[in-house]
Design brief:
The protein is mainly α. The chain has 13 helices and no strands. The chain folds into two domains: 85 residues, no CATH class; 133 residues, Serine Threonine Protein Phosphatase 5, Tetratricopeptide repeat (Alpha Horseshoe), CATH 1.25.40.
């Protein structure tokens, strides 16, 4: 089981890198390695049987059996969750959910950061975030992190304009002009959902506090104003 799990983990990381390089959807990384691993079960079992009689494995196995497996499993999981809690990794917030994080990483030319930024903004644009659509339009207009595409830029600017973002409407009328602005409250309700439901019922003070925690510096000022 341990070897199977370790191979699965390595397989997921390897397939993610491969699929990313090929431009294929990366969510298949957790699926494609399962059939191969299932076919390798007999080989893994034979390998384990072959090493069982030898030195370290035999002594470790004897000590394991004396102690019992349940207490060991419980101790391992308790230690794991305590460590995750201490690191603040047990709540819904994750660095990978933060658009400012990916924007900064892209500016620093970190591996796949710009591609990931475009993917996230595309997802939020499809969810009708005018800010995300405007950002995509700006990217395709500027041609800095992605190849310039005037037609595609106009499509994104037009959608953002339809969603009542004035900056995008100006870009539609003046195609050589790129206008950026901070996300509106409605956009934040989509951008800060952390993989969960849209935050339509969250109060604006809580919304801006959450945005501030995610690295949106403008929201920190709004949070202070809301708190007064």
């Amino acid at each position: 089981k341990a070897i199977f799990g370790a191979l699965y983990g390595l397989g997921v990381f390897g397939l993610y890198a491969l699929l990313s390089a090929l431009g294929a959807p990366t969510f298949y990384d957790k699926l494609l390695c399962v059939p191969l691993l299932n076919l390798s079960v007999i080989g893994i079992d034979r390998f384990v049987q072959s090493v069982r009689p030898h030195g370290f494995w035999s002594r470790w196995r004897e000590n394991w059996q004396r102690l019992g497996t349940n207490p060991v499993h419980m101790l391992a999981w308790i230690t794991f969750f305590l460590a995750m809690t201490a690191l603040g990794k047990t709540d819904g917030k994750h660095t990978g959910d933060s658009l400012p994080f990916w924007t900064q990483s892209c500016q620093q030319n970190k591996n796949n950061a710009c591609q990931r930024l475009l993917q996230l903004e595309s997802t939020y644009c499809n969810d009708n975030s005018a800010w995300a659509c405007n950002e995509l339009g700006a990217h395709y207009s500027e041609g800095i992190i992605v190849a310039a595409d005037a037609a595609r830029a106009l499509t994104y600017f037009s959608k953002a304009c339809e969603l009542r973002l004035q900056a995008s409407c100006i870009s539609v009328l003046h195609t050589q002009t790129v206008n950026r602005m901070e996300p509106r409250a409605f956009d934040l309700r989509l951008l800060l959902r952390e993989g969960g439901k849209n935050l339509m019922d969250m109060s604006e003070p809580d919304l801006y506090a959450r945005a501030c925690d995610h690295g949106w510096s403008f929201a920190c000022n709004n949070k202070k104003v809301s708190a007064r």
